[in-house]
Amino acid sequence: GDAVIRWFSILLIALQFLGPTSKTAAVKFENNDPAINFGSDVTFNVRLSPISGIQKVFISIASEGREAVFYAMDFNPLGEATFKLEISQQPLRAFGQVRYYYRASLSSGEDVVRKPFTFEYADTRFEWKTLENDDFKVFWYDREVDFGQTALNTAQSSLNSAKKLVPAISP
């Protein structure tokens, strides 16, 4: 009797902390792909619904090799949130992966976090071609594939020569 009631009470308390509330489950994030203006800015847009109870919207952005940075987004009454990342303020590595996620702060005090998205910060000014092997990925434009293959072969042979001079464990 008492042991069953005590166990059931503990289970209910644990579910309050572990399980999502109805408000948390109800917030929907509709992501649009970031608009890249290479070398200048990246604009992030997301639509949230329903908008009742949402007080603020934030974005966390992390590029390869850098710590994540958290920003407040502009949030309008239609449920659209926007943030323009100025590359001069937070440089992104060209052709690097950028990971970002959204967080909505609700009037109830809860924070709703969306699973992360990623994109490649590619130089959109050119139509890039790529080749890769286990060690390298080379990018070029305005040339044929033999140019890229020569660059890949040169990089690989240089690495092989360096390994002979300085023995090291390959990643």
Give a verbal description of the structure.
The chain contains 3 helices and 11 strands, in the order H-H-E-E-E-E-E-E-E-E-E-E-E-H. The chain starts with a helix and ends in a 6-residue tail after the last helix. It is of the alpha+beta class. The strands form 3 sheets. Strands 3, 4, 7, 8 and 9 form a 5-stranded antiparallel sheet that branches. Strands 1-2-6-5 form a 4-stranded antiparallel sheet, with no helix packed on it. A two-stranded antiparallel ribbon has the order 10-11. The chain has helices at residues 2-18, 22-26, 145-165; strands at residues 28-37, 41-49, 54-63, 69-72, 74-75, 80-86, 97-106, 111-113, 117-120, 129-132, 137-140. The model is unreliable at 14-25 (pLDDT under 50). The longest helix has 21 residues, at 145-165.
Q: Regions with pLDDT < 50 over 5+ consecutive residues?
A: 14-25
Global Rg = 24 Å
What is the average per-residue confidence, as pLDDT, rounded to a whole number? 86
- The H-and-E topology, N to C, reads as HHEEEEEEEEEEEH
Termini Cα gap: 59 Å
The helix content, as a percent range, equals 25-40%
Bulk shape: elongated
Number of helices: 3
Strand content: 35-45%
**Biggest beta-sheet profile:** 5 strands, antiparallel
Which class of secondary structure composition applies to the elements? Answer: alpha+beta
**How many runs of DSSP E, i.e. beta strands?**
11
